[in-house]
Automatic annotation (TrEMBL):
Alphabetical list of Gene3D superfamilies matching this protein: FAD/NAD(P)-binding domain, Glucose Oxidase, domain 3
Descriptive protein name: Oxygen-dependent choline dehydrogenase 3
Pfam family, one: GMC_oxred_N
Signal sequence, start to end: none
A single GO molecular function term of this UniProt record: flavin adenine dinucleotide binding
UniProt keyword Cell division present: no
Entry similarity comment: Belongs to the GMC oxidoreductase family.
Superkingdom as given in the UniProt entry: Eukaryota
Keyword Flavoprotein: yes
Domain Glucose-methanol-choline oxidoreductase N-terminal: 259-273
Listed PROSITE patterns: GMC_OXRED_2
Binding, FAD: 222, 494-495
Length: 553
């Protein structure tokens, strides 16, 4: 028999929701926990386990958001895929695992005034998560945790261009990281790709974190959080949730784990948010909290295609090279290296001065700290594009991806209507600061040097295959030309965060400010730009959140 009042109702069964539900039950099996997920139960779906699961983007496991037109991207609206179902984005993503650098976590702790969010304090939770492929890395990594993390070489994949690409980065002065490990606190340099796969199969959060003992409602949409006030001036209390079908569920505590887009939407639909935004939709203001839906950060990407000089030698998937038919090459993506880089600080300081109207202090400005990672670079041994440009998957090309990891052009999330079925209004606001434009230009120039002017580029690459109506990139490209390329083809890496920022919307224990019994635990609370694929930081954050909430931290 279901309880009349739940101890905890958790809205959202994605990565964070699955982990905190599982761990809270493990810490205290008497807790009555209800996990509500808008999408389906993915735990028995085998199709999501394989490397081509990103093909599920655009299907029933995807919210399929559309951003508002982005002025800096020629007014294009960006398709924003977000996981819908148990596991959330971790059910349809590419399984790339990166933690990000120590400096990001330490800035997080400093910003919220709580040392528990520093790198050293989060490290035990990072290690608790991991079943790291290498048992000799115990200072920085865990073994025996629920999440298996494998490097490319540990799976037996040795791509034909591995050493040549490494030498190309060496030529540019990019260091090789100790133990090829970009997940040990300092990721500036070249390390091996690591993925959350066990024997080539995806590690799905609601499977590796068992949900036995947790009651689960799937394909169920929450309309709003129910709030009460003991008296006219008393503190707000969360008392449960109202489902979109009209059902009321009572709870002592509510946790929103609905993600960086749905959590701020849910708070606003419940009357918590910027009073001006709520007034647009005639929503009664229960708490004027202006930062709800603000501070949206994301990682913008650009893909480029590069023609190989001697494709008949079998360097890229699609060629006749029999190596790619070997089973180990189906255990992950055709990538060897994750190369994380900074930018020239003199140029960066000049860009900051343009944005802020004053010369920044290099000793104190957060963007000028040592070890800040601004760019992530991949060379991918596979290429296909149906059009603009048309690139056949016949082994004739490789492609590159560059992602800007620190966004200073902050976006917003707003309401489209009072209907929870309607997608929120997503304003990505890319490239509105000189810093962001400078970083992207620097990144493109660096990648062009790798592909055209390093030993790797000179021996293996004949040139870029650009989009229609564009010239191939060159070593002499102007700022204006590089900006036009980004405007034409810039896309998202699907890493939204910051929209219910810790320190502004929630405190350092995830409590929504001025509301009892209401927390937010997902990517929306990340208060700083994380130079990582968010899955890595979120695993550790959710582990610590469960410990904090149950008094086991």
């Amino acid at each position: 028999m279901l309880p009349a009042v739940w101890d905890y109702v958790i809205v959202g069964g994605g990565l964070a929701g699955s982990i905190i539900s599982s761990r809270m039950h493990e810490y205290n099996s008497t807790l009555k926990i209800l996990l509500i997920e808008a999408g389906q139960d993915t735990r028995s779906r085998t199709d999501i386990l394989y490397t081509n699961a990103t093909n599920l983007m655009g299907g029933e496991l995807d919210w399929q958001y559309q951003s508002e037109p982005v002025a800096a991207l020629n007014g294009r609206s960006i398709t924003y895929n977000q996981g819908k179902g148990l596991g959330g984005g971790a059910a349809i993503n590419a399984c790339g695992y990166t933690r990000g650098p120590k400096v990001d976590y330490d800035e997080w702790a400093e910003l919220v005034g709580d040392s528990r969010w520093s790198y050293e304090s989060q490290l035990p939770f990072m290690k608790k998560v991991e079943d790291w492929f290498n048992t000799n890395s115990t200072a920085q990594h865990g073994n025996g945790g629920p999440l298996h993390v494998a490097s490319v070489s540990s799976t037996g994949r040795a791509f034909p261009l591995r050493d040549a690409v490494a030498k190309g980065w060496d030529d540019l002065g990019i260091p090789e990281l100790p133990n090829l490990d970009g997940n040990a606190g300092d990721n500036l340099g070249r390390g091996e790709l690591t993925e959350t796969r066990r024997n080539g199969l995806r590690e799905l959060p609601p499977v590796i974190y068992p949900l036995d003992g947790v009651t689960i409602l799937t394909e169920t949409l929450v309309e709003k959080i129910l709030l009460s006030r003991n008296c006219s001036q008393g503190e707000l209390h969360a008392t449960g949730v109202l489902l979109a079908n009209g059902t009321t569920i009572s709870a002592k505590n509510v946790i929103s784990a609905a993600g960086a887009y749905r959590s701020p939407q849910l708070l606003m639909l419940s009357g918590i948010g910027d009073a001006a935004e709520l007034a647009k939709h005639n929503i009664s203001v229960r708490l004027d909290l202006p930062d709800v839906g603000k501070n949206l950060m994301d990682h913008m990407s650009l893909y480029q295609f590069w023609k190989l000089k001697n494709p008949e030698n079998g360097y890229s998937i699609g060629s006749s090279n029999p190596i790619f038919a070997q089973p180990e090459f189906g255990t992950g993506y055709p990538i060897d290296w994750v190369t994380s880089t900074g930018v020239n600080k003199t140029g960066l300081a000049a860009a900051i001065a343009k944005d802020e109207g004053a010369v920044p202090d290099p000793a104190s400005h957060p963007l000028l700290k040592d070890d800040r990672t601004f760019l992530e670079n991949f060379v991918i041994y596979q290429a296909y594009s149906a059009a603009n440009p048309a690139v056949p998957m016949n082994g004739s090309h490789v492609y590159t991806n560059i992602a800007a990891l620190i966004q200073t052009s902050l976006g917003t999330v707003g309401l489209r209507s009072t209907n929870p079925s309607d997608a929120p209004v997503i304003d990505l606001n890319y490239l509105t600061t000189e810093v962001d434009r400078y970083v992207y230009r620097e990144g493109l120039r660096q990648l062009t040097r790798l592909m055209l002017d390093s030993s790797f580029g000179k021996e293996y690459i004949s040139g870029e295959t650009p989009p229609d109506d564009f010239a191939p990139v060159s070593l002499e490209d102007t700022d204006e030309y590089l900006d036009s390329r980004v405007a034409h083809a810039g896309v998202t890496t699907w890493h939204p965060h910051g929209t219910c920022s810790m320190g502004k919307v929630v405190d350092s224990e995830f409590n929504v400010k001025s509301v009892k019994g209401l927390r937010v635990v997902d990517a929306s609370v990340l208060p700083v730009a994380m130079s990582a694929h968010l899955m890595g930081p979120l695993y550790a954050m959710a582990e610590q959140a469960a410990a904090i909430i149950t008094g086991n931290a």
